[in-house]
Design a protein that fits this description.
The chain is 0% helix and 46% strand. By secondary structure, it is mainly beta. The protein folds into six domains: 6-289, no CATH class; 309-373, Immunoglobulins (Immunoglobulin-like, Sandwich), CATH 2.60.40; 378-460, Immunoglobulins (Immunoglobulin-like, Sandwich), CATH 2.60.40.10; 474-546, Immunoglobulin-like (Sandwich), CATH 2.60.40.10; 553-628, Immunoglobulins (Immunoglobulin-like); 632-719, Immunoglobulin-like, CATH 2.60.40. Strands 1, 2, 3, 6, 7, 11, 14, 17 and 18 form a nine-stranded mixed sheet that branches.
């Protein structure tokens, strides 16, 4: 049933710096003795932070607490700094109460420490603030009243270093009409003193003209004035009237009229029968007509033939707890209090399920839903192993969950299958006419439910062995790289037979034929998955390996001086038809005869003999000979640079030179010519190109020979024209 809720909030209003501000909804003050005359003062203030605070009034940055002696004389004031505020949660004890919109209550806890030496008669701590909410129903002209929070530090003769009691819980922000409230309004006392509770009239403090007195007024304090029909012991329209247990502080009552009410509660602290202090707290009750829109709803069944265990989805609105009855006549445990429960039925059938939202409360709502419970239907099958195309034949076996008696089957194998479909539970001998991956669908129907399962059957082609090989002349030893071109849909294993007694399992083997002859090659391809098969290909006589000639010769001698760089070669080759000699100095002779060779310079020289036979096969043998270097230096004593191109340049004749410097000087020591090039000589001219006169000149030659030895030659040369 849809109902509406009418909720009016009554806020305790605290005075602010703005005249006639209305924003505070409750509070209290207490203290703790820390020792050495130090006392910690705690002031709790509750503020309306919602739209009802029309002026947007915040907390005071400092709360001024006045401290008075027993004669009402101000001892001092203490400024408690604003600590920041925390928003209180909306805790509703009645599930039928719909939280009013835009409710916001903040709590600020001001604290400060002050020194209070022992004083006859003790101290009174006072905080005052105006004003209250103008819509409060149980006091006269509520907007003209403020708040006073007071705590008394007793005479040291009654108690030394006493701490006052403080309330444990702040009352609920909103309560329901005609709903019994049972609230723990008790306090705690750090000293373990006896606490007594009673209703009281809240104190008044401040005014619209002076909302935050500084200093606040000393006791005695003015009280608010109840409007007709209300008094200290009947502060809210209620039946039964609200009552507080003097010993436990438990507050019980049932409000009967909506509205906003101020309530005052006092806790008295006794020790050894003597009253030490009291804490008066006033607070706001917001009484509402609690008649919310509670809708019980069970989501309709969407999953069928899923077995005896059913998960229920709760789609109720506005409720906070539930009672389910699953309608199983064979069980007495077919109930649950979970929001979204799961239940296992004792048998198949059609069941009526009941859901009560907020059971036991006046706002409870009930709904029903029918569920059809059948055995679980979940067909499946394991696809048979893949097969080769030739001779394929597959057997299928239905699996999964179904009723073997009531179930009906339909297999769909596709247009490439014979037969293309079957109604057997386990059809046999199904074949396919082409290779490929074929979807097969099993459809099972039972109890009005139909479900399908699809998987894949694989038909593979047979493996096809193939390989390629390079052509060209094959001479022993012949090395060949065989290129595998075999094809299959799955991994293959290989076995090669090279026809010479050797084998290999490599995909692309490299093989060497060491002997001449004609060879056939066989490749065996095996697949162990899919189409399981072994296929062989043989290529006969694909390699004709011809014999090679044998190159053989000797050299005499193997080492010679540059002064006698002569060598003889003697050919002992076999099975050849032609020869080529290479002497390592760019000399090439095509002949099979023995050879005589002379080298022009020292060094190491490779002598190679290449033989060839009638098949075009070749063989090469190389031997190394050495020509030892020698150092020789000769220089003439005259030259004739006269333009006849005979004896035009002056330079030494040398052999075995590694480093070389050559200079020409005149008789005064002037350098006329110098070079580091062994083939460059002096042309009889000065550095500027002018011809030098006939005469005698000095030469200097600096040499490092090939053996690392240094030589220096100085002499005279005559220039003749």
């Amino acid at each position: 049933m849809n109902k509406k809720i009418f909720l009016y909030l009554v806020l305790l209003v605290w005075g602010v710096t703005l005249t006639h501000a209305t924003h505070l909804i409750g509070g209290e003050m207490y203290y703790d003795c820390l020792g050495n005359n130090q006392y910690k003062i705690t002031l709790k203030i509750y503020r309306d932070c919602g739209p009802s605070n029309t002026q947007g009034t915040g907390y005071d940055q400092n709360a001024v607490v006045g401290i008075y002696n027993a004669f009402g004389v101000l001892v001092k004031t203490v400024n408690l700094p604003f600590p920041g505020a925390n928003q209180l949660p909306m805790n509703l004890t009645n599930p039928c109460l719909v939280a009013p919109p835009n409710i916001c209550v903040e709590e600020a806890i001001y604290t400060g420490i002050t020194d209070l030496p022992p004083l006859t008669g003790g101290y009174d701590l006072v905080y005052q603030r105006c004003c209250r909410n103008p819509t409060i129903l149980n006091i006269v002209t509520p907007a003209s009243y403020g708040n006073t929070y007071w705590a008394h530090v007793p005479d040291p003769g009654m108690a030394v270093c006493n701490s006052s009691p403080r309330f444990k819980n702040f009352p609920p922000i909103a309560i329901c009409t005609n709903d019994l409230l049972n609230f723990d309004h008790s306090a705690t006392d750090p000293d373990g003193d006896v606490l007594i509770y009673e209703f009281c009239r809240p104190y008044h403090g401040g005014s619209s003209g002076n909302p935050a007195p500084n200093p606040p007024s000393p006791p005695p304090f003015n009280n608010i004035i109840w409007i007709g029909g209300f008094n200290d012991n009947y502060q809210i329209t209620s039946n039964p009237a609200f009552a507080i247990n003097a010993s436990t502080g438990n507050l019980v009552g049932m409000a009967t009229q909506q509205g906003q009410y101020v309530m005052g509660v006092k806790v008295k602290e006794f020790r050894n029968g003597n009253l030490l202090s009291e804490n008066v707290r006033d607070f706001q009750f917001n009484v509402a007509l609690c008649d919310p829109a509670i809708i019980s709803s069970i989501s309709s069944q969407t999953i069928f033939c899923d077995g005896l265990t059913v998960s229920f989805q709760n789609s109720s609105q506005g409720s906070s707890f539930y009672f389910w009855n699953f309608g199983d006549p064979n069980s007495t445990a077919d109930t649950s209090n979970l929001t979204n429960p799961t239940y296992t039925y004792s048998d198949t059938g059609t069941y009526t399920v009941m859901l009560v939202a907020n059971p036991g409360w006046s706002c409870a709502d009930t709904s029903y839903q029918t569920f059809d419970v059948r055995y679980k239907l979940k067909p499946s099958f394991i696809p048979p192993n893949p097969q080769c195309l030739n001779g394929n034949s597959f057997d299928f076996f239905a699996g999964g969950l179904y009723d073997t008696i009531a179930a009906e089957f339909l297999w769909d194998f596709g247009i490439n299958a014979t037969p293309p479909s079957s109604t057997d539970e386990n059809p046999q001998n199904v074949s396919f006419d082409v290779v490929g991956f074929f979807p097969v669908t099993l459809t099972v129907s039972q109890d009005g439910c139909t479900l399908s399962y699809t998987d894949t059957v694989k038909v593979y082609p047979h493996p096809v062995p193939e390989f390629d090989f390079p052509g060209g002349l094959a001479c022993q030893p012949f090395t060949v790289n065989l290129v595998n071109q075999s094809q299959a849909w799955t991994n293959m294993q290989y076995l090669w037979d090279f026809g010479d007694g050797n084998t290999s399992t490599e995909p692309n083997p490299i093989h060497t034929y060491w002997d001449s002859g004609t060879y056939s090659v066989t490749l065996i391809v095996t697949t162990s998955y899919g189409c399981i098969d072994t296929v062989t290909i043989t290529k006969p006589n694909i390699f004709h390996v011809f014999p090679r000639p044998v190159s053989s010769f000797t050299v005499q001698p193997e080492e010679q001086s540059i002064f006698q760089p002569f060598f003889n070669t003697y050919n002992f080759s076999k099975l050849h038809t032609a020869c080529t000699w290479l002497f390592g100095d760019e000399t090439l002779i095509e002949s099979c005869d023995n050879q005589f060779h002379e080298y022009a310079d020292s060094g190491y020289y490779p002598i190679s003999l290449i033989t060839i036979n009638e098949f075009g096969c070749t063989d090469t043998l190389t031997r190394i000979v050495r020509v030892h270097p020698e150092f020789v230096f000769f220089i003439p004593n005259a030259f004739t640079p006269d333009g006849d191109w005979k004896n035009e340049f002056y330079l030494p004749k040398m052999m075995g030179v590694k480093e070389y410097e050559f200079y020409i000087f005149d008789r005064w020591g002037k350098v006329l010519f110098n070079t580091t090039e062994q083939a460059e000589g002096w042309n009889g001219k000065a550095n500027n190109g002018s011809p030098m006169p006939v005469g005698v000149y000095v030469y200097l030659a600096k040499i490092k020979d090939v053996f690392g030895k240094n030589h220096e030659y100085i002499g005279h040369v005559t220039l003749i024209r």
